[in-house]
């Protein structure tokens, strides 16, 4: 089947992408690693000994960054509906984040201890219908926020990818109810034409 012009353009952009080449050179599984690295450079989210939950982790580039930063004394827990090749020191559960049974399994992995940081780079399967895709994306973001409310220790931080559009202002308001401050980040590795931004909830309220 012939590729559409848009998919050809995406492929050309991907092949020529500076961050794709860097990821190959540096041993990261995806260019998304540099988004987390840049945000962490600015906001100092990842520290030695931290417990981190990575939601929507596959293929695992954020796990790679997190595990490197938290060191041997820290722990990284990952969850995704997709398969993910093992990463040394990362504990992974494959399952649908929207299912309560999967969340319960993930919570059991944490062993009742709350984490220092929740990171979420999840996106839904794209249908091509903007209204549907935005609704699906916001639903995942709401589930991630609920997880952070339940599993983050007081003072912990929450970083989540959000697409600007319907439901975005309400989501910002919900985050502000949970965290002392909420800021947006648009790292250089995030493509200009993408409506994605990263919202960072700092200092979960007690």
Automatic annotation (TrEMBL):
The protein's role, per its UniProt record: Specifically methylates the uridine in position 2552 of 23S rRNA at the 2'-O position of the ribose in the fully assembled 50S ribosomal subunit.
Name of the coding gene: rlmE
Domain Ribosomal RNA methyltransferase FtsJ span(s) in chain numbering: 28-203
E.C. designation(s): 2.1.1.166
Domain of life: Bacteria
Lineage: Bacteria, Pseudomonadati, Pseudomonadota, Betaproteobacteria, Neisseriales
Swiss-Prot/TrEMBL keywords: Cytoplasm, Methyltransferase, rRNA processing, S-adenosyl-L-methionine, Transferase
Homology family: Belongs to the class I-like SAM-binding methyltransferase superfamily. RNA methyltransferase RlmE family.
InterPro entries linked: RNA_methyltr_RlmE (IPR050082), RNA_MeTrfase_FtsJ_dom (IPR002877), rRNA-MeTfrase_E (IPR015507), SAM-dependent_MTases_sf (IPR029063)
Annotated organism of origin: Chitinibacter bivalviorum
Catalytic reactions on record: uridine(2552) in 23S rRNA + S-adenosyl-L-methionine = 2'-O-methyluridine(2552) in 23S rRNA + S-adenosyl-L-homocysteine + H(+)
Name of the protein described by the UniProt record: Ribosomal RNA large subunit methyltransferase E
């Amino acid at each position: 089947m012939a590729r559409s012009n848009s998919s050809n353009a995406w492929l050309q952009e991907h092949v020529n992408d500076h961050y794709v080449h860097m990821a190959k050179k540096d041993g990261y599984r995806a260019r998304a690693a540099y988004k987390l690295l840049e945000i962490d450079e600015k906001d100092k989210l990842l520290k030695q000994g931290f417990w981190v939950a990575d939601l929507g982790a596959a293929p695992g580039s954020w796990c790679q960054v997190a595990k490197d930063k938290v060191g041997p004394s820290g722990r990284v827990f990952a969850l995704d509906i997709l398969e993910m090749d093992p990463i040394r020191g990362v504990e992974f559960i494959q399952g649908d984040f929207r299912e309560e049974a999967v969340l319960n399994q993930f919570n059991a992995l944490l062993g009742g201890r709350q984490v220092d940081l929740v990171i979420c780079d999840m996106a839904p399967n794209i249908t091509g219908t903007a209204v549907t895709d935005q609704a699906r994306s916001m639903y995942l973001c709401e589930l991630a926020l609920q997880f952070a409310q339940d599993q983050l220790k007081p003072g912990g931080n929450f970083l989540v990818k959000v697409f600007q559009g319907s439901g975005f202002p309400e989501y910002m308001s919900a985050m502000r109810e949970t965290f002392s401050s909420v800021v947006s980040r648009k790292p250089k590795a995030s493509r200009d034409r993408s409506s994605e931004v990263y919202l960072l909830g700092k200092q979960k309220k007690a």
